Amino acid sequence: xxxxxRGSGVILxxxxxxxxxxxxxxxxxxxxxDKGSTDGDVKTVVxxxxxxKIGVGDVLxxxxxxEPQFTxxxxxxxxxxxxxxxxxxxxxxxxxxxxxxxxxxxRLLKYVHKPRVTVTVQEIHSRMVYITGEVQRPGAYPxxxxxxxxxxxxxxxxxxxxxxxxQVYVLRSANKTRENVxxxxxxxxxxxxxxxxxxxxxxxxxx
Length: 207
What we know:
alpha+beta, 10 strands
């Protein structure tokens, strides 16, 4: 005796095919976000103090509320200026973000009724400090406010097991001098004066 008719076989095949299709869709849906996460990276605003002075090379994000045509991401040129639609060029180097907002607001009054301008620092390139040698993440770091040697080492992930803590030093960019730092004593509170403040362009070397 036949257990299934031809019609039952067709129905069974359709059910299996649908189940397989749903499984494949579920698998692709799980893998999708990981693939897209690298393509959809969103620039984040750098947290700077209200006293931060914009410098050459910094990347600014400018928005005007309810006026999307004025939204702009601009790099401060070597002459200290940025370019925007209608207002052409405007000096921003040496200004705080708030002062830059005020200047742009005044320039836009000719074209926009009561413009609400926001200027944020998206990337800092004018004030960088560097760390090299036996740290977890050597490289360049933005100097957003004051920063000392211990703070920069912490930003760089700390020392490696091979670091010579007593032989750390700072290469000063301004006067091309070298300042020795006994990092071991600094951490023990025995030489706080060696935990020097860093200036733009300085390099901390960890042998």
